[in-house]
Amino acid sequence: MERVNITELRSNLPLCLQKVKTGVELQITSHGKSLPGWCRSRMKSKRPARGF
Questions:
Q1: Domains identified in the chain, total number
Q2: Residue 50 belongs to some domain of the structure
Q3: Which among 4, 26, 27, 37 could disulfide-bond with 49, CB atoms 3.0 to 4.6 Å apart, if both were Cys?
Q4: Per-residue confidence in pLDDT tens, the chain, 52 aa
Q5: Gap between the Cα atoms of 37 and 46, Å rounded
């Protein structure tokens, strides 16, 4: 799983989307902490992700 800062994601969105299409999992971070709505393990959880 590759960690990507939210600012980096926004700046390089096409590249990040291409990586995801090829099967690379991205962990989106902000200030060094994982964003819960984007983490695959949280997405499988029955608890809904907190909104943005």
A1: 1
A2: no
A3: 37
A4: 889 999 999 999 999 999 989 988 888 999 988 887 655 554 455 555 565 5
A5: 12
